[in-house]
Amino acid sequence: MSSTFELQDELQALQDPSSYEIPNEHDLHDNDAAELLQRAVGSIAHSSEEIKDPEIFDILRSLLKHADVVPGPCMSKLLDSIASGFSAEIDAAVRDSKEEDQQAVALHKIPLEMYAFLLNWFAAAADKVKSPGEGEATPQPKSRRGRGGRAGASRALAKKGEEWTWIDQIPAILELFIKAMKLKTHRIWMTTPERDAFITCLTRPAYHIAENEQYMKAHNVKVNVYKVICVAVKHHGHALAAQINIMQALQYHEHLSEPMAECLSHLAKHFDHAQLGEEILREIAGKTFNAQDTKGPRAFSRFLVKFCEESPRSVLKQISVLLGHLDSESYPMRMAMVEVIGLLIRELSSAEDNNDTTQTHKQIVGFFELLLSRTLDLSSYVRSKVLATLSKLCDLRVPFPKQRLEITKHAIAMLEDKASTVRKAAVALLTKLIMTHPWGLMHGGPLNLEKWEGYYKEVKEKLEKLEDAVGKVVERGDEDEDEVKNEEDEEKVDEETDDGEEAESLANNDKRNPANDDEMDVDGESHSADDTTMGDEDNRRPEKPKDKKAKKSRKSVINEVAITSEQEALAALESNEALYLRLRKKYYTEALVFIRMIEGSMEVITQLLASTNKAEVLEAMEFFRVTHVYEFDGAGVGIKRMLHLIWSKDNNQTSEDGKELKGVRSRLLECYRNLYFDPLPDMEPKQQVNRIAKNMIELTYDATLAELTSLEEMMKTMMEEDQVHHDIINKLWQVYSSTKPLPAYQRRGAVIILGMLALAKRSIVEEKVEVLLKVGLGKLGKTDLMLARYTCVALQRLNGSAKKVKGSLLNKTLRLEMNNAIFRKLQEAIEHPCRSKDWFGMAEQAINTIYALGEHPGELCGRIIKNLTRRAFARRPQAPQESTFVPEGPDAMDQDAETESASCAPASQISSATQSTRQENGDQAAKDSGDAFQLSQLLFVVGHVAIKHIVFLELVEREWKRQKDEKDLAEKLAAGVNSPNKASKETEELDQVAGNVEDEIGDRIASVRETELLYGPQSLLAIYGPMLVHVCGSPHKFKNRTLRGAATLSFAKFLCVSSQFCDQHHHLLFKILETSKDPDIRGNIVIALGDVAVSFSNIIDENSNELYKGLSDDDLVVKKNTLMVLTHLILNGMIKVKGQLGEMAKCLEDEDPRISDLAKLFFTELSTKDNAIYNNLPDVISHLSTGEHGVSEEIFQSTMRYIFSFIEKEKQAENIVEKLCQRFRFSGDARQWRDIAFCLSLLPFKSEKSVKKLIEGLQFYQDKLHEEKVFDRFAEILAKARSNKSANKPDTELDEFESILNEHRRQGEEDRAFEKRVEGRKAAAKKKATRRSTRKKVQEAEPETRQTHADDDDDMYV
User: pTM for the complete prediction?
Assistant: First the structure.
């Protein structure tokens, strides 16, 4: 046997085990495997040399060849036998190798090869059998086929699994291979090929095991695989084979990327063999990856990153060749190189044994430049990776201040990247830069701009004083050389500091506080455009004047005074101090540049809070939280804008990059708690309560209505979750009711917050009603109307905050008797004499409170209206006294002498005495004039009472229905007890009767609203309808702005009450919208028309054209209101679109981003309606292309490009092609041709039908193809059709169509040229005829005596 066994040949034959030939093969289906195995095991146990027996060797090979039918215990016994025999043979070889007998050593060659061969085969066979499941080879197919009882089979499988599993045996086998490699192979195998074959036989199972991902997850398996490869490489010349195997593993087995990197690192660290890793890096550097390949580059990229983490120095040696992958087509390789560069920067900056610090610094700077250059990479993944890598580098101990400023600059630029992942990474990087900033050593962490400007100014003044003092010190001539050196050093420092000063002075010009403009004005001559960089160009400009000044001062005092040694020592000390101050100045300069850059980025990050990407929003929120902690000035704007995120709905938490994302709403609450409401350490409980209450109140300062609404929702949520301690509520009441003089906004803030908290817990207000009446509606409330207003809002919380469920009759509201003190105080507040415009807001909330809490609010409001009417139309005794009521402030009301008398005419029933007096007084004297402000108050209350009474009637209707429902339910229950069968039969009849009764209730309430409120004989409001119509319809008489505003608002509210009143007078409202010069009035009318449309949609639908005119209004607020109202009405189907969608489309390209964003939102929502955009598309094109509403060609194209993005159905596209082609027939203008052709080019032309319809419409546009842009559009369509065509279809039809287009274009150009020639000849002939007629007239006018000579001259001339 020994003469016939050749390991290399056997390994080659084993490539296909099924065709492997065994001389004495045993068929295990006929023979018992256990008996055969027992014979072989016994022989090998007797002597390991028995393996050379052909019969024993064939038995073992047969068992391995048919391993799939060998029972598990037999496989275990087989492995133990081969392993023990191999181990014994290795020990024998080691013993013999210690002696000088070469022949005895050589005898071990064949047995060692045989055992290695068998173990190699066993590893492959066991793995192959093992792969389907967890048990051994034989039972697995049985369990799948279901032979025998299931329970018995599973128990047997578990038992055998405990006896033997391959993964448990792998570490021992690998250790045996390692033991075999410790042999002196050069004494056993004389030739290199034989030795390499043996080593290959031992390493191949290791590579094979590594290919199984499950095996490599076991630590002991992984470590032994590494050792096998490392020992083979280090001691047996396996490097080249290992390189080939590792490269193949990286290419075909993605899970081996990181293990192979660890293996090479293990080889370099523990076996002192780094050459293999470097060779593999060089080979990877030479590879080329294309953009379509994804698997290969991903594996190699992970390998590079892991290897750089493990052995950065090895990668650093080869980085010059690896950098070529920065320009690779494959983005995973570019990402890997970015990460590698980051790891190298970390390694170089953290290394402590650097001898050449200059070279290291150059390398680091170069690497930073490479990283920053990749921020312009085409792939968003690479750009995100760059930012993530830079973010990790922020944690380094070395600050790199100059690089930090460059990183900040690039991160801010990338906030406007088109990819949301890049923007998110940029925000995260800026947050990290702030948290790890290196300017906290002297003054702590905060980066408040004003404070740091103060630090800078202080050190600058000190430096200037010191430089003045040092300039007076006399320097001796023999120290000139040293002086020059010192001067050069100082110039270097000056170069950097002056650069910073220039940035200071430029950035300081933008400060909001003009008083500080001179603080940072260092170099008045330099006006660099870039105030954030510290480049060389900026350094040169401010350097020159300083140098001249320094040299002059030194020359002027040389050798004039004798210098003592004490003076020299003083000069040296001052020189050191000057250097220290210069360094401090540079330190402050860099910090200020950083602070200003961060402040400048906040506007963009504020916009990111409105992003639809959840992760991006969360990062922006964290940024503002951090900037607020670090005391940045601009953080407050972002913190306030974050409030609106309270309305976002937290869906199930999603995962990105393996991290769980917190919901936006919950994250917002967490941020606010962290900033304002969480207790601080080392603070007494009383101070904690004061601080939190103060923070709550301050959140209301300068807050807009939207911010207050969002704050209200947040406070309500926190109160519902019991996150507001009762001590804080008591403190807020204490602030509100304090007898000490407090700032008005502080007391207001307290009651605002209390009202918000009461939404969740009514008892907060219920227990303190007397306090509210005493403070807010008492003396303080009368002087501070805003306080009274918010007190009314807080009182409304007594009614609870339960929202009405649609269709539900449940009513949880609280109603009070009308003799309650609350209503008396509210009436006093409304009727209290006042001249401030704040009264309107207070009166509105007071009326809201009356209707929210009162059982019969109409009675109280009727009394208020009567009292206000008496006051408004009361007679003024003297004109001078009237003039005392004319205020001078911006909230003042003028008194109109003539207008008020006219306004009294419709109100004869109330003010008959006043009217009769005025009728008797014919001269309309000033003493008979009314007060415009008081009339405004009256009309405002009348209008608001009307609108609130409608709401109250709806509540009455719901209450009646609820009572009826309860009564019916009781009757049903009673009927059910008496006779269940009868009740069940009559259920449908009862439901029908109940439905009829509910209809009767609804009709009765509608009748009251329609006929009684504004037209009933007993109705108080009926008196004021004609008055409002008169005031609004006589703008030349009633010129007071406040009066017109209040009257118009109330008139619009009256229109919502009755369809009869609306039908009679709605034209007046449209007329005011068209003619009014006051944008506030126009804006209110637009909103009111939306409410009128909800009530009486048919009336507004008939006049919708008037409403669309607001879209072209000059005032931004009017335009925005119109767009929002139309969006609401159209999307909810309250008005129909009748060709006016073009006006909405114009807003897509509005200069103001708010208008354009709203318009885009409208069209996005409209696209979800069935065919809404498709049906109106022809009208939009006509509207925007020509006529009085037409827009420029550029705006038309950008608008159409956006609208056509919603045409996604192929059937729609086909129909649009046909319609647009027919439009060519009716258009005679070249501009229209270009617009239609452009719209055609926007369609996808994915189907053959679209192209076919385009070709069929050739007759309509063939004569327009001579227009260059029209032809270009059709060329684009052809290219698009070709790209979408099926690959198996010929281009014949498209080629023919293209030739026809070219032919008609040429024909058209010829026709145009011919027409031009004809027109030219006509013009020439006309000109010639004109000249002849002129000449004839001249000839007739000449005297007869010269006629003959003139005729001769003429003939000769002609």
Answer: 0.74
